[in-house]
Design goal:
Keywords: Hydrolase. GO terms for molecular function: hydrolase activity. This is HIT family hydrolase. By secondary structure, the protein is an alpha+beta fold. It has a single domain, classed as HIT family, subunit A (2-Layer Sandwich), CATH 3.30.428. It is 24% helix and 21% strand. The longest helix has 22 residues. Bound molecules: guanosine-5'-monophosphate (5GP) and zinc ion (ZN). The site of guanosine-5'-monophosphate has 14 residues, from β2.
Length: 118
């Protein structure tokens, strides 16, 4: 099935390189890039390269690849920003605050008393 919809979707266009972004991590299945409007310095978004709207739309076999990317990105962001923690969050559906309909995990560098919690 053709799941890549680069014409309609801003994150597909980032995956395709049509819209510039600051790449943090890339593998065959996923891309991580800096959020354009960061909650804290180093706020990163992790997306599957294929277009799925919601977390639960990712087929199980591909979900393990997406989690594998998160597993790499989370410690890499903590190391790069020298923070002890991250908030990792998915707004899964419009009513939860999902504004871009291409599944993405927020990886937000955190430290105590930064006031940036969800
Ligand atoms: P949501 O509210 O859908 O969970 O989060 C969407 C996120 O995407 C927001 O944090 C927003 O700043 C980010 N964002 C929206 N458009 C762009 C863009 O064109 N480039 C980048 N790097 N981030 C974007
Ligand atoms: Zn997309």
């Amino acid at each position: 099935a053709e799941t890549h919809m680069s014409d309609d979707c801003i994150f597909c266009r980032i995956v395709d390189g049509e819209i510039p972004s600051r790449t943090v991590y890339e593998d065959d299945a996923a891309l991580a890039f800096l959020d354009a409007n960061p909650l804290t310095m180093g706020h990163t978004l992790v997306v599957p390269k294929d277009h799925y709207e919601r977390l639960d739309d990712i087929p199980a076999a591909e979900a393990t690849d997406f989690y594998g990317a998160l597993h790499e990105v989370v410690p890499a962001v903590e190391d790069a920003l020298d923070v002890p923690a991250t908030t990792v969050a998915v707004n899964n559906g419009e009513a939860a605050g999902q504004e871009v309909p291409h599944v993405h995990a927020h990886v937000v560098p955190r430290s105590a008393d930064d006031g940036a919690g969800p």
